[in-house]
Every structure is written in structure tokens, then in C-alpha cells.
């Protein structure tokens, strides 16, 4: 069952934050939800790759790439791994690559843009920390709801 973010906002507005960014849907699944797991990184996807290699248990990976579209934080192989490991979807404040292949996956992927440039692999960043994206604070474990209208998260 899919929950409409607009209807959810109408019902629970004061309990929610809305990420005020213009995301593009890159995956084949538009609506998804689950508890947040978070990563903060800059043009380096080693932590993203490491997390999605673990069992996702229906979680949504929220990646604060600090709004950089200078390098992709997810491509088709990392997205496929996330999908196969039971992640519900990913919200990326940054870029992806392999957009044609991403669109074939039954997996939710929202990001700012695409860029064919690979990211760094040094592992710089933080996992399971509170991040602020588009004016919304996302803490690990908070419920994230995404659809064609956008992304809302429990406060």
C-alpha cells in the first residue's frame, strides 16, 4: 500500500518535515517509504556502497551529498545491490549515474541530477548521523515517505 505524501501532509503536517528540493525520480519505483538510515559524504560513495551491501530491512537510505552534482554517489551496480538487499529506496542530495539502467530497476531513487563522473572511494563521511537536507532534519530511524510529489519525514 502506497501512502500519498500530500495526503499524509494533510493529516499530519505539524508532525512532518518536507524536503524542499526538486528531486528527479531515477529508479523504476516512484513511491517508497521506510525508516531512515543516513550518510553524510562529499563526492565519495564508499560509505553508501558499504551500507547497501548490508541487509536493508525496508529502510530508506538518505544520502546528504551536500548538494554536489560534481560526482555520482550511486550508479546501477550500487542501486542493484541495494534493491537486492531489501532497501526500500534512496534519497540523494547529490548526483547519480547510469540513469538508463536505474530506470529499469524496481527501486526508488530520488536525486538532484545525473553525472557520469565516478565519485571518490576514500570512505570519508559519517553514517547514521542527523542530516539536514532542503530545510528538513532527518534523523536515523525517522520514517521517510517519498512519491511523485516529494519527500516528507517524521520530525
From TrEMBL:
Its cofactor is a divalent metal cation; Mg(2+). Its EC number is 4.1.1.112, 4.1.3.17. The keyword Magnesium applies. Gene3D superfamilies: Ribonuclease E inhibitor RraA/RraA-like. Substrate binds at residues 75-78, 97. It is an enzyme of class 4 (lyase). Keywords: Lyase, Magnesium, Metal-binding. Pfam families: RraA-like (PF03737). CDD domains: RraA_family. Catalyzes the aldol cleavage of 4-hydroxy-4-methyl-2-oxoglutarate (HMG) into 2 molecules of pyruvate. Also contains a secondary oxaloacetate (OAA) decarboxylase activity due to the common pyruvate enolate transition state formed following C-C bond cleavage in the retro-aldol and decarboxylation reactions. This is 4-hydroxy-4-methyl-2-oxoglutarate aldolase. It comes from Brevibacterium celere.
